[in-house]
């Protein structure tokens, strides 16, 4: 009846695991209790969970990312604490449990922190930056969100029922095969990755078509904001790269349960590695490119001037996009690919540094020529510029093939050096920058600055020692060591993670303080930063339809140009009825049924898998009957909304749907 699911699936094997399970269960029950006590279930369902408004979907993406960030940072603290104090003794984590935490940390940070953050900012900002009222495919956007949520739920539920994978986040065979991982951990990983990957592809298609087809009249490609350009590049990479990961995970599942031999033997392992990193290395740039777009917007706004070298920045982003697809083996010169293959990737890898240097030079000159305001988004940007240079320089060392640093903590430090300053700092900058656009009030600066300094200090302490340990020969993924010379560096790295924990805590305090003081922090205008791009031409927060009148764009930084020209008179604007997407429960039902199906397949509960499969089919089928349904907002209501919000949509001509 319940397949392989028994009472032994509960985490009785470890007190630490049981504490984690109780934390997850109590946290979930606490949220349910609070919503019930406030009587907000109907509001939550009708206004958020079933909404097809791209802004609300984006906010839910970011909320998911922040929740999973807490789990990911806690996992990191547990890993570094074990390594710091497990000198000769075994420490507080058994090897099997350590491997689970190691795998879940990387999986969560890559799939359920970074990607939801990226897609959330895309969903909130991109339609407004290009002058669109909605995304091209509202239901596809919703489905992408809820499939990602279902994947994240699988990772969280593995704390309570069963165990997570011990084969690390890359899941290389044969370690991820049945012989070495006979439990359900790898299956949890496979299904979480499959669900989130399908969700990411749906979102990538949605944003690609939105940018290509729904730009405001007059906005040519070379007039798009840099963030929109990076979203376009990242969407293309998502569509090209993620199918490789889906194929790798699906074939791995077939090898595990149907006895196929796709990844058997040394050649099979090399095939898996290639498939995985055909996705993995472009994925790094899927995460970094949008952050570069955010840095571009922040630098221009807080320097008070147009970006220096706009075209150079665009060409650099396009070059990085292309090169990211042809460097996937530049960390694997020791796996026996051959001299010619190694030579090709050895030459390709350094090339990607050229457009990266161009972007940093353009930002630096923009800052140098402008009048800089050191607000929190700008601090994260400056922190990125300083620390990312170290990650870029260390990347050169992999290109010259020194075997002594491959598969050591040097690689761990390099990878985190790219993704924390290169990606996560960018998301924090964007989150701080666009928060008043989404909610109508700014985030409190004092706690934001404290969070920034904790993150920057914590990053340096946590990862710079790993470069040294890599040169000293410490392999990655060790759960304990008996080398006395390594121990001081590991203790410093653990202290760095404590600073990062403080940074996360300060971000949480910042949200609480900002909500408490939201009247004081309310944006004095719809454009609190004196922005340059179209999203600041709408109300903060915007109406459902974003623009009462479709903007007509005549150059780069159209909102800044109009402000300087003083043509912001709204009295001549004409309004028309606007048709917007209605609500749909199909997205959340698709996510819920996908979770049920995946959970049932993991535990081989066949009747439940059949029910989940039918539920998926019913959710998709139900949406086909409502695909063209929408809500009409009369012109009189639009005018009343705009009057109440005090918006001055001078960009508008006629607003036809």
From TrEMBL:
GO molecular function, one term: cytochrome-c oxidase activity
Membrane-topology descriptor: Multi-pass membrane protein
Signal peptide: none
Any single GO CC term annotated in Swiss-Prot or TrEMBL for this entry: plasma membrane
A Pfam match: COX1
InterPro entries (alphabetical): Cyt_c_oxase-like_su1_dom, Cyt_c_oxase-like_su1_sf, Cyt_C_Oxase_1, Cyt_c_Oxase_su1_BS
Domain Cytochrome oxidase subunit I profile, chain residue ranges per copy: 39-554
Transmembrane feature ranges: 12-38, 59-81, 101-125, 145-168, 188-212, 224-252, 272-295, 307-328, 348-369, 376-401, 413-431, 452-474, 486-509, 578-599
GO biological processes: aerobic respiration; electron transport coupled proton transport; respiratory electron transport chain
Main location: membrane
UniProt-recorded name of the protein: Cytochrome o ubiquinol oxidase subunit I
């Amino acid at each position: 009846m319940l397949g392989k699911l028994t009472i032994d699936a509960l985490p009785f094997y470890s007190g630490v695991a049981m504490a984690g399970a109780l934390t997850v269960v109590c946290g979930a029950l606490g949220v349910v209790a609070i919503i019930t006590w406030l009587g907000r279930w109907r509001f939550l369902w009708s206004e958020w969970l079933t909404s097809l408004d791209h802004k609300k979907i984006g906010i839910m993406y970011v909320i998911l990312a922040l929740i999973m960030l807490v789990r990911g940072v806690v996992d990191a603290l547990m890993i570094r604490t074990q390594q710091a104090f497990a000198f000769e003794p075994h420490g507080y984590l058994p090897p099997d449990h350590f491997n689970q935490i190691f795998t879940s940390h990387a999986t969560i940070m890559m799939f359920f922190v970074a990607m939801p953050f990226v897609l959330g900012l895309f969903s909130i900002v991109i339609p407004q930056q290009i002058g669109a009222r909605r995304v091209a495919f509202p239901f596809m956007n919703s489905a992408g969100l809820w499939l990602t949520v279902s994947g994240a739920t699988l990772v969280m539920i593995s704390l309570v029922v069963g165990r997570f994978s011990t084969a690390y986040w890359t899941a290389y065979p044969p370690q991820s095969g049945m012989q070495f991982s006979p439990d359900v951990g790898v299956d949890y990983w496979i299904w979480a990755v499959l669900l989130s990957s399908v969700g990411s592809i749906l979102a990538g298609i949605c944003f690609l078509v939105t940018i290509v087809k729904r730009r405001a009249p007059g906005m040519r490609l070379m007039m798009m904001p840099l963030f929109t350009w990076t979203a376009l590049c990242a969407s293309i990479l998502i569509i090209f790269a993620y199918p490789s990961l889906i194929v790798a995970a699906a074939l791995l599942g077939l090898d595990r349960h149907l006895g196929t031999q796709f990844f058997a033997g040394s050649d099979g392992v090399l095939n898996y590695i290639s498939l995985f990193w055909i996705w993995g290395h472009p994925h790094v740039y899927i995460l970094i490119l949008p952050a570069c777009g955010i840095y571009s917007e922040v630098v221009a706004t807080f320097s008070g001037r147009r970006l220096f070298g706009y075209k150079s920045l665009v060409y650099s982003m396009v070059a990085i996009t292309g090169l990211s697809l042809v460097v996937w083996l530049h960390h694997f010169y020791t796996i026996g690919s051959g001299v010619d293959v190694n030579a090709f990737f050895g030459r390709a890898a350094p090339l990607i540094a050229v457009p990266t240097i161009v972007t940093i030079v353009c930002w630096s000159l923009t800052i140098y020529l402008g009048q800089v305001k050191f607000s929190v988004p700008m601090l994260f940007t400056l922190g990125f510029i300083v620390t990312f240079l170290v990650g870029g320089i260390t990347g050169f060392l992999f290109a010259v093939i020194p075997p002594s640093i491959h598969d050591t903590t040097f690689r761990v430090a390099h990878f985190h050096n790219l993704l924390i300053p290169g990606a996560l700092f960018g998301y924090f900058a964007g989150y701080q920058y666009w928060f008043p656009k989404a909610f109508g009030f700014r985030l409190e600066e004092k706690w934001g600055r404290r969070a920034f300094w904790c993150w920057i200090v914590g990053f340096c302490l946590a990862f710079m020692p790993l470069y040294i340990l890599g040169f000293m020969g410490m392999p990655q993924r060790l759960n304990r060591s008996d080398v006395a010379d390594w121990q001081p560096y590991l203790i410093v790295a653990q202290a760095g993670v404590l600073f990062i924990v403080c940074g996360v805590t300060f971000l949480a305090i910042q949200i609480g303080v900002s909500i408490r003081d939201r009247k004081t922090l309310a944006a004095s205008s719809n454009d609190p930063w004196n922005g340059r791009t179209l999203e600041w031409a709408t109300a903060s927060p915007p109406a459902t339809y974003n623009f009462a009148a479709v903007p007509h764009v005549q150059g780069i930084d159209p909102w800044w140009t109009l402000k300087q020209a003083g043509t912001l008179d709204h009295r001549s604007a004409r309004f028309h009825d606007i048709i917007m997407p209605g609500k749909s429960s199909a997205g959340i039902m698709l996510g819920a049924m996908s979770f049920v199906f995946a959970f049932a397949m993991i535990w081989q509960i066949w009747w439940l898998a059949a029910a989940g499969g039918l539920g998926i089919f019913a959710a998709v089928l139900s949406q086909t009957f409502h695909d063209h349904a929408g809500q009409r907002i009369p012109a009189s209501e639009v005018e009343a909304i705009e009057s109440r919000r005090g918006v001055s949509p001078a960009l508008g001509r006629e607003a036809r749907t």
